[in-house]
Amino acid sequence: MHSSLAFELRQSALLLLTALIWGCTFVAQSVGMGSVGPFTFTSSRMILGVLFLLPIVTILRKRLATTKPAEADRRRSREYTRTLLLGGFLCGLCLFGGELLQQMGFVHDTEVGKAGFITALYIVFVPLIGMLLGQRSRLLLWIAVVIAVAGLWFLCIPPEGFSIATGDIYVFACAIVFALHILVISRFVTRVDGIELSMMQFFFGSIIAATMMMLFEHPTVEGWTAALPAILWAGIMSNGIAYTLQIVGQRGMNDTAASLILSLESVVSVLAGWVLLDEILSTREIIGCVLMAAAVVLAQLPERKKS
To answer: 0.90 exceeded by the pTM?
Structure first.
């Protein structure tokens, strides 16, 4: 019982740290798009993700050969390699699609706050798509999802209301793709190593993004240099660290509960502006933060066992 609780707390902490890093990445993406195109930005951050994780994977594999030779042999098997390549390709395809659509939203001037709200709607799509795949979510999780969406509305959308622009449609599609990304990770993370899966998703994603960049964009050294700080943050912190923490943290977690914790990135982005940039936190935003926190706590409550 205690070990199970400790495991869930650890996984939740990893996902919370992921949300913390993601919450600071919206600004980096918005700034970076001022100098390079979406394919260039996406391919650059994914390549950095591969370069960041490659030495870590190499060291861990060498250590495994000494400490757990049977597991090392399993990872060298054809079945493991095929599963890793398939999982990496599908995760990379979803991640490329999600990041690209989000970047396209910024290209079409979607506001950062609104982008945070729409992107986080994956908390709705995860259980909906899961239902189509035959998965069930308990009533408490659905209640938590409704509360979280209400919190996101108060947090991200101004009092004058919500208007739909072209960029918002791209970000809406991005939310659906990110929901698929969460579900694909859940499918493969119990069959292969999480860090290796993360590296392979960046490997395949970078190939797709770089191909699109060469076909549709003409990046310059000056533009890439100007966007380098934003690319470094997105590539190392968001891709290399946060997305890897997401994969490791999702192992053994309910998909809907995991998506609710990850959606706290919207809360983090608002609180970061308050703490670091001296932005004023309105009553509306405070209500949104409280509702989001309540939804995540509600999702973590254990299910009552029938007597």
So the answer is: no
